[in-house]
């Protein structure tokens, strides 16, 4: 098989992997818009007293990488289930030599988040419900910054709209026990 065919096979396998995982997880690895990212990175400045941030579903790394670059003194953790975006984010971490960034190919619902002060996510309604259940069941205290999707029935501390095409709402919650 020549190189051209190897590339075609690799692209097809990567696409199939993304489609399969998106169907299994319930959401595609679509990145936040650049304007949403900017808002989230600014909101994270308010968590300056925190030592550990995590992104729940870190996709291709387009947000978790700038989170780590902007906060060299903090530990930044990314959890992602989809193998191809996860591998790309691993490459970016290496490229930028980000020693403060830890990336896991793991379901964040089974992760120990007790040491995390600030959680960032861009999920889907069912994912937000599962996250809320985890936070309450494990009595976790954290600031949660969520792109587009809210915790149903819970009043956010702040609601900021990104100046992108969808005027994406960014919700901030201070979750206590
Ligand atoms: C809409 S994308 C957002 C990507 C990135 N957070 C951003 O804002 O650019 C949602 C990502 O969450 C991941 N995801 C959803 N549920 C997950 C779970 N329980 N554990 C780990 N990753 C999850 C998906 O695979 C997908 O890549």
Query: What is the third-level CATH name, the topology?
Result: Rossmann fold
Mean pLDDT: 96
Biggest sheet layout:
7 strands, mixed
Q: How much strand?
A: 15-25%
The hetero compounds bound to this protein are: S-adenosylmethionine
Shape: globular
Number of helices: 5
Which CATH class applies here? Alpha Beta
Report, as a whole number of angstroms, the end-to-end distance.
58 Å
SS-based class = alpha/beta
Second rung of CATH, namely the architecture: 3-Layer(aba) Sandwich
- Helical proportion, percent range: 25-40%
Strand order of the largest sheet: 3-2-1-4-5-7-6
H/E series? HHEHEHEEHEEE
List segments where confidence is low: pLDDT < 50 over at least 5 consecutive residues.
none
How many β-strand runs? 7
Number of domains: 1
Q: Which radius of gyration do the C-alpha atoms yield? A: 17 Å
CATH fourth-tier homologous superfamily: Vaccinia Virus protein VP39
